[in-house]
Design goal:
The protein has 400 residues and is an alpha/beta fold. The protein has 3 domains: 212 residues, Rossmann fold (3-Layer(aba) Sandwich); 92 residues, 3-Layer(aba) Sandwich (Rossmann fold); 79 residues, ACT domain (Alpha-Beta Plaits), CATH 3.30.70.260. Helices cover 47% and strands 20% of the residues. The strands form 3 sheets. The chain has a 6-stranded mixed beta sheet, sandwiched between helices. A 4-stranded parallel beta sheet has the order 5-4-3-6, sandwiched between helices. Helix 1 packs across helix 8 and helix 9 packs parallel to helix 11. The model has no long low-confidence stretch (mean pLDDT 94).
């Protein structure tokens, strides 16, 4: 094994006092929901809001004086960019960051605010990576790879040291996988400390790159994902070797499950996470039986999510739970009809958010109007009781 527990312990000494030793806390509510004892490692509480600070700082600290003068370059979908930019600034190292064109604005602006030269180019992370290699050669810059680097992996592995120091009885760790740097470091450290612990990787089903490689599969890779931080088509060679030896399994999670996990962490734990940061919880919720009764650690790897995306996640989550609903009611097109329907809804303790009348774009008779109500309710059961009350009052109503 090219990376050992000693390497990770050495990294921890360098990082001590320079990054946050983030809390690892038990969640009673999520434990009840998931049927397992759930512990959350809040790496979204790092200064740049992700675990990437660990590997970035350890790698930058290892550079020679000449390499620091040359300057560094990194490609990133956002979190590695911010981590490298911030710590390079602290160390006085010039830095260039290549990011895909559609990287969330919050990640781009934060990276620029740390003094980095930011170049937005390429449709995907892999496109940006190829551009980075070219610019590194042209400008003679030192590459700070986001995952396929021994120092990076060792730095990320310090997460496991803190988790198992805080919660030594854990049975399993669920870890996001993009290029594989985080899970590789965690696997080396955790298996050295506690060989019986299960290390489970999690990928979005749209980007099952490490899963494909590990299982010799050819599942299609690509698409628009809320977990853009782990949307990697080509995982690392070094990370694959470690994962092949030490990781027990890789689970795939669909987009709607990731969205639900982001919302649940916000609602229950009052913590903001990006899609990649919530994917461990999504996997746990999707595989409750597998982890039932076990002590499971989840790595909340980052919290850099655009506010418009977070707003959409919240709204869509409210819709899925029935707390924000659209119903359509057929009414006689006479004065007072809408008022009577509204009164029936409000008598059932629902809040009317919007009302839309449809007279033209409808197949109903001309004397009939379709009225669409957007409602805030207490959930699906409450919504069903509102529909029943409307039907009993003589209205034809259905959920859209």
């Amino acid at each position: 094994m090219s990376i050992t527990i000693q390497d990770i312990q050495n990294a921890a000494k360098v990082l001590q006092g320079n990054i946050e030793s983030t809390p690892c806390m038990h969640s009673r509510t999520l434990s009840n929901i998931c049927g397992a004892e759930v512990y959350l490692k809040f790496e979204n509480l790092q200064f740049t809001a992700s675990f990437k600070e660990r590997g970035a700082l350890f790698k930058l600290s290892s550079l020679t004086e000449n390499e620091r003068k040359q300057g560094v370059i990194a490609m990133s979908a956002g979190n590695h960019a911010q981590a490298v930019a911030y710590h390079a600034k602290q160390l006085g190292i010039p830095v260039v960051i290549i990011m895909p064109r559609y990287t969330p604005d919050i990640k781009v602006e934060h990276t620029r605010s740390y003094g980095a030269e930011v170049i937005l180019d390429g449709e995907t992370f892999d496109d940006a990576a190829n551009i980075t290699f070219d610019i590194a050669r042209q400008r003679n810059l030192v590459l700070i790879h986001p995952y396929d680097d021994e120092k990076i992996i060792a730095g990320q592995g310090t997460v496991a040291l803190e988790v198992l120091d805080s919660q030594p009885e854990l049975d399993a760790l669920l870890v996001p996988i993009g290029g594989g740097g985080l899970i590789s470091g965690i696997a080396v450290a955790a298996k050295a400390i506690k060989p019986t612990i299960d290390i489970i990787g999690v990928e979005t089903s749209l980007f099952p790159s490490m899963y494909n490689q590990l299982h010799n599969k050819q599942a299609e890779i690509g698409g628009s994902t809320i977990a853009e931080g782990i949307a990697v088509k080509q995982p690392g060679k070094l990370t694959f070797e470690i994962i092949q030896k030490l990781v027990d399994d890789i689970l795939l999670v669909d987009e709607d499950k990731i969205e639900s996990a982001v919302q649940l962490l916000l609602e229950v734990e009052k913590t903001v996470t990006e899609g990649a940061g919530a994917i461990g919880l999504a996997a746990l919720l999707q595989n409750k039986q597998r982890f039932s009764g076990r002590k499971v650690g989840l790595i909340i790897s980052g919290g850099n999510i655009d506010m418009p995306v977070l707003a959409s996640v919240i709204q869509r989550g409210l819709v899925r739970s029935g707390r924000l609903s659209r119903i359509r009611i057929q009414l006689q097109d006479i004065p007072g009809s809408t008022s009577r329907a509204s009164t029936c809804i409000e008598d059932n303790k629902a809040k009317i958010v919007e009302i839309h009348h449809h007279r033209t774009f409808t197949s109903q008779p001309i004397q009939v109007v379709e009225v669409e109500f957007i409602l805030q309710t207490k959930g699906q059961e409450h919504l069903e009781s509102i529909l029943l009350s409307l039907h009993q009052s003589g209205f034809k109503a259905h959920i859209i």
